[in-house]
Amino acid sequence: MDDDQDDAEMDDCEVGGSHLTDFACRDAILQSKTLKLFENFLELGGDRDVAVEYLSSSYAGVPKMINLLIQWLQIAGCKQKEVQGMVEEHFTSVILKHFDPKKADRVLVEGGETPTWLEEMIQFPKWRQLLYQLSEQHTECILLKFALKLIRDAGYQDEFVTASTRDSQFDVYAASVVKSLTHVVKAKPDTCDSHVKDFAELASHSQHTYLYTQVVLQALGTASEDHGSDNPHIAQWLSHQLLRHNLARSRDVVKTFLHTMAVGTYSRLFEALSSMLSRNTLNPADISIVRIKVLISNIPHVCIYCTAVRTLYY
Predict the structure, then answer these.
(1) What is the chain's Cα-based Rg?
(2) Among residues 238, 308, 233, which one has the least CA distance to residue 278?
(3) Interatomic CA distance for residues 257 and 311, integer angstroms
(4) Residues 5-58 pLDDT 10s
(5) What one-character DSSP code corresponds to residue 40?
């Protein structure tokens, strides 16, 4: 029994010691977690005066000194907007250079709730751009993933101008695909081409995004056919436009396209279509193979294969 009590006291001492280490950090009193740490320290029997001594000794007042320096610059004749830009650029460069994803994740996990400073941060365009840059450099950081989700939920997903930001966050990318598809479907004739181009650029950032988008389009086409809707034609047409967009840029996406249409299980048909589409040239021998397979074999959705060829070459 005494041993258990001694172990408990030792644990309390270790915890109290870790609290004092936190209190000794520069400007610890300005940290959002300090109040909870202070309360916990007292609950463990820590000396209040000791904690206050640590917190007061570690106070440097860096934010106050920065604000004072800003005021001096303004008194010296610098414009407020100019000074603010200088400070923001300096902070941005420092954060990009020294950002530690492990420490950032620890802040989120140990806090157990959304940090108030993060909620405030996403309200400003400059700091949202910083979060986008950090998320591209640290794609596995939990805090940054959470920040992007907050930004999306706040309605700023249109700012994800870099496809790599969308690509690294599946839910963000999926939401972008839905929004882009909606724009295409609802577009007027004079704006349709522009929306289709934007959709193709969005889907063509990487092999992963291309494959995902083609599968979505095929699924939409199949679901629409089952319900007797005209939408399968829209989905098929968009799928072909996406293929053409990539072929025009010499990207090797033909095999992926054919696999999403379930052509891969028919080897000779797959080879024939792949050959023609990749070379952008109709070949009599390959056309004969396609014709035989379409007319004789029991291959589902052969009209889609023919449509793909017609879309590309006529």
Answers:
(1) 30
(2) 308
(3) 14
(4) 444 444 445 556 788 888 898 888 888 778 888 888 888 888 889 989 999 999
(5) H
